């Protein structure tokens, strides 16, 4: 499957025109991970977000002292992770680890993303709105798990 | 193009569940691999109204035992 098709089926980019999708794909970089490989580590600085296009990652929290880190959610194809550090430039809020063999992600760097949003504010508006909707969905999922 | 964004919540365990996109509406009885685990869908409900080609679903499911997994040796297979 080519990158254009993958991007079109990801909610984060829903509403973009074809030419705008092309601009997004131009800043995406594919990365393949082996099971157990870390994509992000809680507490560390991060300047990338990731879109999972194949396989699953697990998102882990904690792990301080004697308590082992616990998985809070598994994210599969079409899901975004690492977006919080991209938005607020704070440290990674969780550790993200590949589960499947292979796990394939598209990586978007903050600098490239912000430059694109400045150049084309329509892309910026749509993607940031979709990011907010994605965070809402994750919150709804979390609420249902905790019910 | 329809994309179904699905929140999987696994009942009866401390499994954290999963979120993934798929190309079909989740159905009770369907067996799905989430990460390293296999689950069976018990109930599927629309979580939020459709937006464009995207549908939002919440699924309650149960964890399949090693013997029940579609990839288990001598399995009769799932859907």
Quick take:
The complex is a heterodimer of chains A (about 150) and B (about 80). Chain A has helices at about 5-10, 20-25, 85-90, 110-120, 120-145, and strands spanning about 30-35, 40, 50-55, 55-60, 70-75, 80, 95-100, 105-110. Chain A is α+β, with helices and mostly antiparallel strands and about 150 residues long.
The rounded Rg of chain B comes to 13 Å
For the largest interface, the chains and their residue counts are: A-B, 28 and 23 residues
In angstroms, what separates the terminal alpha carbons of chain A? 38 Å
Instruction: Determine Rg of chain A (CA atoms, Å).
Output: 15 Å
Detailed description of the structure:
Chain A is an alpha+beta fold and 147 residues long. Helix content of chain A is 39%, strand content 27%. Chain A has a single domain (17-140), classed as Jelly Rolls (Sandwich). A four-stranded antiparallel sheet of chain A has the order 1-8-3-6. Chain A has a four-stranded antiparallel sheet with strand order 2-7-4-5, with no helix packed on it. The model of chain A has no long low-confidence stretch (mean pLDDT 91). Chain B has one domain. Helix content of chain B is 0%, strand content 53%. Chain B has strands spanning 3-10, 18-22, 31-34, 37-51, 54-63. In chain B, a hairpin with a 2-residue loop joins strand 4 (37-51) and strand 5. In chain B, 34% of the residues are buried. The model of chain B has no long low-confidence stretch (mean pLDDT 90). Classes of the chains: A alpha+beta (147), B mainly beta (79). Chain A binds chain B through residues 8-11, 14-15, 56, 58, 70-79, 99-100, 133, 137-138, 140-141, 144-145, 147, and chain B through 1, 3, 5, 7, 9, 16-22, 34-36, 47-48, 51-54, 56, 58.
